[in-house]
Amino acid sequence: MTASITAREAPAAADLGGLFAPFDCAGLSLRNRVAMSPMTRCRSPGGLAGEDSEAYYTRRARGGVGLIFTEGVGVDHPAALGVGSMGEQNMPELHGGEALARWRAIVEAVHAEGTPIVPQLWHQGPVRMPGTGRHPDAPSSRPSGIWGPAGGVNNAIPFYLDQVRPEGEAMSDADIAAVIDGFARSAANAAAVGFDGIALHGGHGYLIDSFLWSATNRRRDRWGGDARGRALFGAEVVRAVRRAAPRLPLFFRISQWKLQDYEARLADTPAALEALLAPLVDAGVDVFDVSARRFDDPAFGDGGLSLAGWVKKLSGRTTIAVGSIGLDRELRRSLSEPVAFEDNIARAARGVETGEFDMIALGRSLLADAAWVGKIEQRQSPDPFTIRALAEMV
Question: Are residues 88 and 39 in contact, defined by beta-carbon separation less than 8 angstroms?
Fold first, then answer.
C-alpha cells in the first residue's frame, strides 16, 4: 500500500491545481502540465529501440504524465552517436525500416493511453568519442575541433577524457550542411511514424549547444563570432526541421550546464541570453525545454527569475522547466550521494500559476516511479529515486 505524504511534506491542494489542469501546448491537447523528460537508456543495440521500450514509455503514459519526450534519438548522420562521457552507447536511431517500425509501435501504444509523444532528435557532436558508434570511421562533429575547456567539472570517465581532449578538425561548410540535412530527414521520419512533435537537443554540450557555447565555438566565419553567428547553426536546423515536418510543433532544449562542465554558463546576462534566443525564435521554435541543475535556481544573481522564467520572458514562447523537481540532489550529485524526496513541487506549481513558466518536466522522479504524477495529485508518497533506478531505466 502506498503511504501518504505527511502533513509536513504535503503541499496544500490549492497549491498544485495548476499542474494538473488540461493545457494546450503549441496545439497539443495535454491532460496536465507535467512532461516526461528525455533520458538516455542505452537499450538499443544496432540503433533499434529495445523490445522493452514500448513498456517503458507506456507505463509513464498510464501513470498520468501529460506529454512524453523520448530518450535522445540519433539523427541520420554517421557521427550522430557513439560512446559518450559516461561510456554510454546503444542509443536508438530514427532511420531505416526496422527502426521506424519499432518506433511506430511505441507511438501507437502511448497514444492508446491518451498521451502525445515527441522524439528528441540528437547529435552528440563533440561529446561523441572519436572512432566509436555504428560508423567508427566518421570523424566526430566539432564546430572548432575542440571537445571543451580544460578543467571543467564533470563526471566523465578518465579513458573517455583521454580520447576526446586532443583537438580535431573543425567542421567545414559541407559538414555542417550534411548534419542539417540529417536532422531534416529524421524529422520527416518522425512525422511519418506518427509522432506528435519534434524536439531538438540544443543543450548539455552536444552539437547544437556546442555551436551556441562560446567555449566550444571559436569560429570567425558566419557560424561563429557573436551570439547571432553562434546561434545560426541551431536556427538553420530549426528551419530545416520546419520544412520537413511543417505541421508538427517544434520543441528546443537549452541549458546553461554542459557535460564538459557542470558549472558552465551559456549566457552570463539576460541580454546575452536574449541574443541567442532571438534567432531561434525567428526560425520557428514553438516551445523551449529549459534544463537547469535545479529548476528554481535564480539564473542571474540572487532572488531573480529561474532560467526557464528568463527564457519565457525573453522569447515569448511556451516554456518547460526541468531540473530536480521532487528531489533534493541535482543530477551530478545524485550519481554519488543518496537522494531523498524534496517537496519543491508547490514551488513548481507556483511557477506555473504565476506564468514564470508553463510546464514542468521530470526525469529521475519518473524513473523511480512511473506513477509519480498520479501519486502527487492524490497527495501520496512517490517511490524514492535510487542509482538502481537510473541504471535499470525500466
Answer: no
